[in-house]
């Protein structure tokens, strides 16, 4: 019985500590779970090798380990953005139900988002992700281009969930912390037995 409850507990901990990983364009550095709740996943400096990225018709992909989550994209034209103040929203926040790899459109043309970015410009995008346990961040450094397309090697497909559209300013995400407290209490009680 103790083993069953312990397995349930550790399964719940895995759900709560789940994260996301930016797949494309490549993130600034290797995924660092401990730094993910900080600016650019803890990577303060831009990548030396920026990814050439289409000004329009682009997309980014990420892997979500949360069953329900909210995401958004911020962009900065600063050479070395060092704070959230250097960024503006380029993709409205959206909600998704489902775990796995998702592909989200990313368009930098002025008509799409009012940023007035141009081909040849270096930018940094910051993906903002909230699966209910905390807000997480990962960055990618890009050089925008009018003449580049994303390689056919990069697959744009979605897992089981579909975006539900832009979210209103408030998030209605339920955090599972109560569930963890409950599981900890049960395990502690069983260990005493």
Automatic annotation (TrEMBL):
It is a lipid-anchor; GPI-anchor. The keyword Cell membrane applies. It is found in: Cell membrane. One of its GO terms (cellular component) is side of membrane. Its main location: membrane. The keyword DNA repair does not apply. Keywords: Cell membrane, Glycoprotein, GPI-anchor, Lipoprotein, Membrane, Signal. It comes from the Eukaryota. Residues 1-18 form the signal peptide. CDD domains: LPMO_auxiliary-like. Residues 17-161 form the Copper acquisition factor BIM1-like domain. This is Copper acquisition factor BIM1-like domain-containing protein. It comes from Collybia nuda.
């Amino acid at each position: 019985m103790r083993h069953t409850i312990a397995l349930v507990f550790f399964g719940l901990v895995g759900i709560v500590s789940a994260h996301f990983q930016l797949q494309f364009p490549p993130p600034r550095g290797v995924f660092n779970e401990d730094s993910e709740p900080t600016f650019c996943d803890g990577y303060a400096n831009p990548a030396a090798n920026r990814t050439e990225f289409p000004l329009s018709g682009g997309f980014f992909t990420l892997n979500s380990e949360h069953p329900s989550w909210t995401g958004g994209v911020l962009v900065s034209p600063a050479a070395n953005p060092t704070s959230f103040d250097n960024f503006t929203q380029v993709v409205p926040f959206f909600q998704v139900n489902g775990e796995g790899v998702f592909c989200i459109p990313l368009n930098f043309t002025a008509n799409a988002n009012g940023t007035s970015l141009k081909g040849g410009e270096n930018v940094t995008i910051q993906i903002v992700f909230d699966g209910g346990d905390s807000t997480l961040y990962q960055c990618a450094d890009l050089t925008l281009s009018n003449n580049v397309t994303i390689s056919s090697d990069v697959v744009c497909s979605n897992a089981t969930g579909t975006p539900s559209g832009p979210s209103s300013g408030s998030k209605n995400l339920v955090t599972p912390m109560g569930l963890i407290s409950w599981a900890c209490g049960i395990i502690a009680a069983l260990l005493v037995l």
